[in-house]
Write a structure and sequence with these properties.
Blueprint: E1 8-9, E2 21-22, H1 26-42, H2 48-67, H3 71-89, E3 94-96, E4 102-104, H4 107-128, H5 134-149, H6 152-172, H7 182-199, H8 208-212, H9 214-229, H10 242-248, H11 253-277, H12 281-307
Antiparallel strand pairs: 1-2, 3-4
Helix pairs in contact: 1-2, 1-6, 1-7, 2-3, 2-7, 3-4, 3-7, 4-7, 4-9, 5-6, 5-11, 6-7, 9-12, 10-12, 11-12
Length: about 325
């Protein structure tokens, strides 16, 4: 169907594939999430925020797949959608090291920070969707952890996300002949972010959901920091994410995906352990994972430099 609709990803100098490949596989993943939401609705659970997120970000991504929307327009729509779903899901009200050491956030700050969280998560997943099996490897453990630690519609969404990606893996692993497309990557990131917002109950819980997707966040944010240091514009095209550097150094796609699967699984275990222990555990787990991710990212960049790669392109 995506071939007939001419939804193709044509390779360029930054691509990790060499032939035009259909994109739009994310629609199947979103269908799985939608089925999960129908089951949640039948159980009498509140699904509006996640349902609007799936529909809104899925349609935005599909429009971008079909029409190649400009960055400013896409970011503006994402901000508007993020504002809507945060209003529906509820913003973060407080945060801290633990319940005993926390601060209540002014409404404007909590709301703005929550919208930014949705915006960053959606874009980060979109930026990372560039290697065969990578999003599957990262988000199957994430979805399972979300289901195991969450409850209500958010927990069901986690299981549905994992199930949808396992089904998509047939077409994307070990060699992709179908890509998620923006319809999948933007929506997956946003759905996870909104589900996380709905599951925050204590000030310490705010660390659990960035921890769950830390392999994504650390790669994207540390890569952007590297671009700033090298005098490269934020939105300029590049191939300097850690996963791209590994591929450029000769790692096959399956090996890159396996490395990120291990990292994602470790973060999932840490997040579940933090949720079980409570207190300062979520913050401690998050901080330890950030330190480890920073060292790994720096090691990959140093290895890439020794390999002779240009980190400005």
């Amino acid at each position: 169907m995506v071939k007939r609709a001419c939804i193709l990803d044509h390779p360029n100098h930054r691509s990790s594939h060499s032939t035009p490949t259909p994109r739009g596989g994310g629609l199947g993943v979103l269908a799985a999430i939608g089925l999960g939401l129908i089951l949640a609705l039948q159980a009498g659970l509140e699904v509006r925020a996640i349902a609007v997120t799936v529909l809104g970000f899925g349609l935005l991504g599909l429009a971008d797949d079909l029409l190649s929307l400009g960055t400013k327009l896409k970011f503006s729509v994402m901000t508007a959608l993020g504002t809507l779903v945060v209003w529906m899901a509820g913003p973060v009200a407080s945060m801290g090291v633990s319940e005993s050491f926390s601060i209540a956030l002014p409404l404007w700050l909590g709301f703005t920070g929550s919208v930014l969280w949705v915006f960053v998560a959606a874009n980060a997943v979109n930026f990372m969707d560039g290697s065969d099996g990578l999003i599957v490897a990262i988000f199957v453990p994430v979805g399972l952890a979300l289901g195991l630690t969450g409850e209500g519609a958010a927990g069901i969404t986690g299981y549905a996300l994992a199930a949808g990606l396992v089904g998509f893996a047939i077409f994307n692993v070990p060699r992709a002949w179908l890509f998620l497309g923006d319809s999948g990557s933007l929506a997956i990131g946003a759905v996870f972010a909104v589900a996380g917002l709905q599951l925050i109950e204590t000030p310490g819980d705010v660390w659990l959901y960035p921890l769950l997707i830390l392999p994504v966040l650390s790669d994207v944010l540390l890569t952007l920091a590297g671009k700033v240091r090298n005098g490269i514009g934020f939105l300029n095209p590049h191939r300097t994410h850690a996963y791209q550097l590994l591929a450029r150094m000769g790692w096959p796609h399956w090996r890159v995906a396996l490395a990120y699967f291990i990292a994602s699984s470790l973060c999932a275990v840490m997040a579940m352990l933090g949720a079980t222990l409570g207190g300062v555990a979520p913050f401690a787990m998050f901080l330890a994972a950030v330190v480890a991710a920073s060292f790994l990212h720096a090691w990959i960049r140093r290895k890439a430099i020794r390999f002779g790669l240009d980190l400005k392109t």
